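Weekly puzzle thread! Below is a chain. First person to post its structure in token form gets bragging rights.
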Amino acid sequence: MRVVKPTASIIVLSRNGLDYTKQCVESIYQHTDVPFECIFVDNGSTDGTVNFLNTLDHATVIANEENKGFAGGNNQGMKQACGDYIVLLNNDTIVTPHWLSRLIAWLENDKSIGIVGPRSNNVYSAQRVPTVPYSSQDDMHAFAAQWHEERKGKGFIPHKLIGHCMVFSAALMEAVGGLDERFFPGNYEDDDLCLRVNIYGKKLWVADDVFIHHYGHGTFKSNQIQYNTSSLKNAERFVEKWSIGISGFELERFGYDPSTIVKRESIFIPDRHRIPV
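Winning reply:
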């Protein structure tokens, strides 16, 4: 619940998908073991989501009449954040016991880490756990507990981190800024943030010992948005911003090497690399 000075500010976006949001909220309030505040940013829901959010105790609710996108909504939430740590969490996730204290511990124990993220069942890249055995929330929590015990204290540097769950310090946000709102409504704003954090001189980290559930593309499904079309448009914007030299289609199909961009940019220049929140 909200305290005068929360350890973490958990920012959750919604645009319809009320059932997803209810499950996410329940898991946050049940399984978060550090002092926290919740900041909910709704991007024009029409399914009763805002009414539900307004019933929650100790929560800040920002209700947009129109869709501000993933980047815009999270930036609104970050402006309101009071915590020492910022958590960007998709509303189609279900968190597990001790998830946040364990993620924050990585940041506190290794100051070279800029952003930390968990393992999940439905994400791209190195964070993905390809096969999970559970079919209920109880089974999922048991799986997460076993997963932690088997991988306690283990983690690794990824190619990038996925934006469904990112944890970083408020100080890092002040330094590199927020999410780039040109990537609307969603996709590649997380890639862009990861690049800027790397250029700033901080590393990305996957906490191999933390697992949370992710339904995947929940907002796109709830609003009948074509994920592939949105992703391709933002791939083209990403290519243009970072002068990658390939088409958006090629980027989507073959990916890119962030290390070459970081090496080329080399020095963090606030006027170029910082996105004001």
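Puzzle host: Confirmed. Bonus trivia for everyone else. The chain has one domain: 8-266.
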